[in-house]
Amino acid sequence: xxxxxxxxxxxxxxxxxxxxxxxxxxxxxxxxxxxxxxxxxxxxxxxxxxxxxxxxxxxxxxxxxxxxxxxxxxxxxxxxxxxxxxxxxxxxxxxxxxxxxxxxxxxxxxxxxxxxxxxxxxxxxxxxxxxxxxxxxxxxxxxxxxxxxxxxxxxxxxxxxxxxxxxxxxxxxxxxxxxxxxxxxxxxxxxxxxxxxxxxxxxxxxxxxxxxxxxxxxxxxxxxxxxxxxxxxxxxxxxxxxxxxxxxxxxxxxxxxxxxxxxxxxxxx
Length: 269
What we know:
It contains eleven helices and two strands; from the N terminus they run H-H-H-H-H-H-E-E-H-H-H-H-H. It is globular. About 7% of the residues have low confidence.
């Protein structure tokens, strides 16, 4: 039961990353045409694409700090999914080009939870198993980007009226993602368990062995990453510098920026 529950939690995180890939693949190809329906242009397409990442730029550190303080990742995922559901439905509604951009801005708030799930996995896994688990989870987004265009093909001939809203190939991606994020919300509520609970159980079962090892070996261990919490001391600029202006952090920023920048530029050309 312990192993199956843990596996279910990892599957939920995988599905979360899968949906981020699907969303990218189904929204981007038709976004310009959808905006043009309401008088939009390529400038507003830029705002539409940027809005999703812009809001996550702020929500991600906020959710990360919240996760550090509460260790309740499940609640954060549930709240983040509400933003994804609302933002996706706003996109489906259309109304105006700026309303569509607003929908992407709202949905992007929920994207901040992805980094929270990654940090939760890192904090609650052993060094030996950490990389394989993270790689399997992260590949979910790539699979979503591969499968996403299939949904566009399925929605190609849609032309229905749902009350005051038109459901066609341009608006359908918003409704598709509304349903997908709602499904994920149900899955999270019933099947996701905070990973720190599994970590506590593992610690309880290995306390005796750990005590014996600690008594025999007083040397410093390098198997885990030691994080210095300087959040309560020193000026903000110094704390920011110590936490983010480091060689390894800058290298990750640059590589991530290059990947997503080139990917987005090639898609919209």
